[in-house]
Amino acid sequence: MPPSGKTIPFTAAAILVLCGLQAPTRAEEDVLRVYMDHARVLKLDRPASKVIIGNSKVADATVADPKTIVLTGRSFGTTNLVLLDADGNAILDETVLVSIDEGNTVRVYRQTDRSVLSCTPNCEQHTQQNNAADAGG
Questions:
Q1: SS3 letters for the chain?
Q2: At a CB cut-off of 8 Å and minimum separation 6, what does 60 contact?
Q3: Name one Pfam family in it (predicted).
Q4: Domains of the chain (ranges, CATH numbers)
């Protein structure tokens, strides 16, 4: 029996779905990840003259020396980091994702309330939560 006309559109749709599933993996590679309250060292191949961080409340960038930038996560969220050389050419232009190191955390749910405890080695409430509660969030 010859293949029906529905086979080709189904196959094309399946290929599109599979291609779409690959896109987030590539996008994740273009993100600089840093944990909140942790530092990440970025070594550059040429000296940076200007360091621009999109939202300094999310992340902070410090120049250790012209070829070394220290990126520190300050709050959960995303921002961007742009590094320019002396001629104004972009050395780096990347998205920065700041998240919690979930390796040593426990989440406690009480009805609609959620607490995140940092357990290293004793469990204590995460400081970011206390700040959010004080700010009304």
A1: CCCCCCHHHHHHHHHHHHHHHHHHHHHHHCEEEEEECCEEEEECCCCCCEEEECCCCCEEEEEEECCEEEEEECCCEEEEEEEECCCCCEEEEEEEEEECCHHHEEEEEECCEEEEEEECCCEEECHHHHHHHHCCC
A2: 53, 71, 72, 74
A3: T2SS-T3SS_pil_N
A4: 29-99 (2.60.40.1080), 102-134 (no CATH)
Q: What pLDDT, in 10s, does the model give residues 20-44?
A: 444 444 445 679 999 988 999 999 9
**How far is residue 96's CA from residue 87's CA, in Å, rounded to a whole number?**
24
Record the tokens describing residue 110, joined without a space.
């009480």
